[in-house]
Fold this protein.
Amino acid sequence: MQYGFTTIYWRDMIRFVRFKTLLVSSLLQPALWLAFFGIAMSSNFDRLLAGVPVPAGVHAVGYLTFMGAGIIAMTTLFTSLFGGIVILFDKNWGLMREILASPMNRNHIIFGIGLSGVTKSFIQAIIIMVFGILIGAAFFSGYTAVQVVTGVLGILAFVGMFALGFLFLSAAIAISMESPEGLQGVITLLTMPIFFASNALYPIDAFPEILKVISIYNPMTLLITGIRYFAIGPDFVALGKHYVFTPADILVSFAGLTVFTGITFLLAWWRFKKAVVT
């Protein structure tokens, strides 16, 4: 049982490393987003908000730091949603038929693909954090070494749970599709609303009420809340808004991601149980 699970996992990771174009682009793209979009927007927002008063005892962070958490979340979302394309390729090449006909538990296919995607998300998240610090993002500013380690582990816990949820969703969609174009269309349809109806690039306070409710329960907003708590701190000002996070807020956010992941796993399990590949 374990052998089948690790085979699925390592096969996907070897493919990720061997395809140099995919490897370089998946690692370079988020860094470019942070460098070009982040720096360009940061210079504008920081200049516009230079005169906004900051409450006493609260530190202000620049837009580059604020949206850096959003870039980590965006990269994780894209990587996770496109993770299911491996399953579709296996279907089209006839490999999925052999896997489903083997004695391997079908849950192991889901978890193998899921955890390989989580590993990729971890690598990308760490690269973005390091690169962000190099270009001026104030991640872990004033933290002790222990706090930095705790912060990184906290971020990876949130990234891992979020990535698993969307990888399970992607797997459920992929096993139900017949063409890469159809899968890409569904993923594109999901990506934009999830990303822009979150607090990745801006506060959600000015959203219309319906959109604000959607954003509050958006898994991406829950992820970004956790990242900002661990990377920036529980109390800061950004874009003229005072953010305060309590440990209870973070536990609720993580619990929300856990529930989301559980639901998408059940969906993937149901689709794989019903899957018939000819």
Remarks:
- The chain has a mean pLDDT of 83.
- The beta strands are 59-60, 235-238, 241-244.
- The first strand starts at residue 59 and ends at 60.
